[in-house]
Write a structure and sequence with these properties.
CATH architecture: 3-Layer(aba) Sandwich
Distance between the termini: 29 Å
Shape: globular
Mean pLDDT: 92
Structural class: alpha/beta
Number of domains: 1
CATH superfamily: Alpha/Beta hydrolase fold, catalytic domain
Strand content: 15-25%
Low-confidence stretches: none
Largest sheet: 8 strands, mixed
Radius of gyration: 17 Å
Order of helices and strands: EEEHEHEHEHHHEHEHH
CATH topology: Rossmann fold
Strand order of the largest sheet: 1-2-4-3-5-6-7-8
Oligomer: single chain
Length: 256
Amino acid sequence: MQQLELQEEGGFRYLEVGKGKTILLFHGLFGALSNFSDLIGEFSQNHRVLIPMLPLYDLPVKQTNLPSLVEFAHKFVEFKGIKSFISVGNSLGGHLALLYQLTFPGRMEAMVLTGSSGLFENTLGDTFPKRGNREFIHEKTACTFYDPEFATKELVDEVFGIVNNREKVIRVIAMAKSAVRNNLSEHLSKIKIPTLLIWGNDDIITPPFVGEDFHEHIKDSELFFIDKCGHAPMMEQPKKFNELLKNFLTKLPLNK
């Protein structure tokens, strides 16, 4: 796969690869480009894949919330001149995609949610890691996956760096609280676009019942579970994830 390099312009940092129909990827609270590496490699061959890096640690504390991320995402869409797109959102990124569609209907043609917050999430659990407690960070990071081997030293180091930065920790907590406040249970019936739900059967952050609830409330939705898979199916089971996504895209009216 080609080396992933971020571009910087217009006040945005983003990845853009490939040509064709736009797929806009929204990462989660602790997300990074590496989360989507297999997806990028597969779909950038026939699509324009865009990933804006969300300003999770750059917003003023009082504006560190989901509505601010929605405004940021819309400014990015406008900046890039995107007339229509398909969104793929993991965890907080799925929540962002849902709020975007509810706030700015008409641009998003279809939506893919995987381990999305918006109904129930156990992102931080009952405790927040003490600064300097690397073993705790390793355990928390490993809980993201069915196979704890996915909690690599690089990934743990990245999360460790975040929770040992006081300013970043404040913003992580603020964003997590915003996700809880922005519960969408009473609004999901307004989502009218085709929606693909891909859930790990072993997700303990947004457990399988959350995917079932999304499926129940979003009329035009399909739900698939992946065995031996936690909160990040596109990382842990990329072949199965990409297969489900490819099948979904080929069935969309815009591809017929």
